[in-house]
Amino acid sequence: MNDSNKKNPVIGKKDKNTYVVKIPGSAFYYESQRSTPFIIETINGEPVVGQTNGLMRLDFPNPAAYKMACSFKIFKPVMGEKLARTIVEYLDKDTRETVALLFPTNRVVHNPMDPDFISRMNHATRRDFKRQMAIRQKFIDKINENQH
Question: Directed axis angle between helix 123-147 and helix 64-79, to 10°?
């Protein structure tokens, strides 16, 4: 394919994937594992049907995924079930590779060898990342207030 046939990136487009997952009934087993598998219910708002038994399962890195599963019962009544089950994957503006994962607990997982990972996101994606973190932090602050 020559360069004239390549798609131009859309200015202002957020490069991300949003996963709404099913929280496992018992996450205890995954505490000592490298990752926690979640069944994916939707990606970017679209229902997902995988190859095996109609389910799609993805592994997400621990401890962030494990902490998300353990916090679900506390987070659900405050932030709502959907947000408490949502993981956002932010992508590199050029390669579309994963740059960071944002969990409902406001934990961010990124390559530790890439401390300036935010610079790999386009402007719209950086703005969304910061906004999503602020939304989650408000709920976390509310949970913390209620526990004291």
Answer: 70
139 pLDDT band, cuts 50/70/90, is very high
Round to whole Å and give the CA distance between 30 and 48. Answer: 23
CB distance 46 to 19 below 8 Å: no
Cβ pair 102, 88 in contact under 8 A: yes
Nearest CA to 24 out of 80, 72, 79, 75 is that of 72
* 116 residue type, one letter: D
Q: Is the pLDDT of residue 11 over 90?
A: no
Q: Are 115 and 85 in contact (CB under 8 A)?
A: no
User: With contact defined as beta carbons under 8 Å apart, do 21 and 40 qualify?
Assistant: yes
Work out the percent of the chain whose per-residue pLDDT is above 90.
Answer: 72
Stated pTM of the model: 0.86
Confidence tier at 53 by pLDDT (50, 70, 90): low
Of 10, 8, 16, 42, the residue nearest 127 (C-alpha) = 16
Could you tell me if 142 and 106 are in contact, meaning their C-beta atoms sit under 8 angstroms apart? no
